[in-house]
Amino acid sequence: MAQEKAHRENSPGVLVLRATQFHESPGQMVEWFTTDGVADVMDVEFQPVDSAEVVRLLLEMATGSFDGDVQLAGPRTESLVGLAREHVAAKGLDAAVKPGEAPASMAEGGMLPRQEDAVIVRGRSWHEWMDQEN
């Protein structure tokens, strides 16, 4: 939020798009945090969004469709550990996914859209996206 404040003070007309984590996140967590065949993935809920929707919304914002900040989330709340396991199975990877600790702010819902702000919910679900990726 400090970066947003600095931009607003120095660049009039700034619009901010806040998006939840992308559909690619579970696969990235497996890739980045696998050691000796075990992926240690934070045990958190999140609401992943299709990165193509982020691009569409940025274009809409750039062409004047919005006059204020926008928050974007995917259509469903999911378990990061659960989707990481599904990613491993779908890709045929030789890894086990172990639930790991998350910082308190993330474990308490910090990866979900902020409910005090209006949220645009749109795009494919993670499962729809994964079906098209395979």
Mean pLDDT: 92
Protein structure class = alpha/beta
Number of helices: 6
Return Rg in Å.
17 Å
Distance between the termini: 37 Å
Share of residues in helices: 40-55%
Largest sheet: 3 strands, parallel
What would the principal axes of the Cα set say about the shape? globular
Share of residues in strands? 15-25%
- H-E string: HEHEEEHEEHEHEH
Q: Which residues sit in consecutive blocks of at least 5 with pLDDT less than 50?
A: none
What's the count of strands?
8
Biggest sheet strand order reads 1-5-8
Structure description:
It is built from six helices and eight strands. The chain is of the alpha/beta class and 134 residues long. The strands form three sheets. It has a three-stranded parallel β-sheet, covered by helices on one side. Helix 2 packs across helix 4. The protein is globular.
